[in-house]
Amino acid sequence: MQLLEDKILKFGKVYPGNVLKVDSFLNHQVDMSLIAELAKELYNQFKDCAVTKVITVEASGIPLAGATAQFFNVPMVYAKKSASKNMSDNFYCAAAHSYTHGGDYEMRICKDYLHKDDRVLIIDDFLASGKAIDAITDIINQANAAIVGAGIAIEKGFQHGGDRLRANGIKVVSLAIIDQMNADGTIAFRPQ
Amino acid sequence: MQLLEDKILKFGKVYPGNVLKVDSFLNHQVDMSLIAELAKELYNQFKDCAVTKVITVEASGIPLAGATAQFFNVPMVYAKKSASKNMSDNFYCAAAHSYTHGGDYEMRICKDYLHKDDRVLIIDDFLASGKAIDAITDIINQANAAIVGAGIAIEKGFQHGGDRLRANGIKVVSLAIIDQMNADGTIAFRPQ
Question: pTM for this one?
Answer without folding.
Answer: 0.96
